[in-house]
Amino acid sequence: MSMNHYTRGQGDPHRWNEISDIETAKKEILSGNPFLPHEDAIKIVDEYCNEQKKKILDFGCGLGRNTCRLRSFGHCVGYDLPNIIEMAVEYLEDDTDLTHDWDYIRAQQFDLIYASLVLQHIPADELQDYLNHFHVMSPVLLVVGREHNDHFQDRTVREFICANSWALHKEYAYTKNELNQYHEIVVFKGV
Fold this sequence. Notes:
alpha/beta; 31% helix; 7-stranded mixed beta sheet; Rossmann fold; single chain; 26% strand
């Protein structure tokens, strides 16, 4: 499958380091600058759903840039750290399902787990635990990452995932972000 390269919102992405209050975050998010969903990855979710309603986990949802779009495919639950979820709750729609309760999440079944630019931030031992849980929770894991710099323990995140009960199912073209970095989109299936 060939995908077009695209450039998301304009502006200084380093602004996120300066944002410490919800009102500033809300203005940035609602302006769409540079906080937009990964539309190429959303298109892949759309292909996977094939016009059927699905239950999706947005793992590491952040402030919800993808969660809002993923809701259009059925039921989407956003999961992240408590302080991030607190901020997301402030501006997302009331019926958005957000949580920081891992026990609540891991007790559920999902049709797809969506992880965008998050796995490289998790220490290897914790990531291995999450991947083991994912394997029980869902047959499909869609990862948006930066293959060129998402490394830990001398392995890429992709190699780490494949070494932990997941098989590479489909790989998509790189997409370009506002920093002119390329992201890859990879779909894994449990083995």
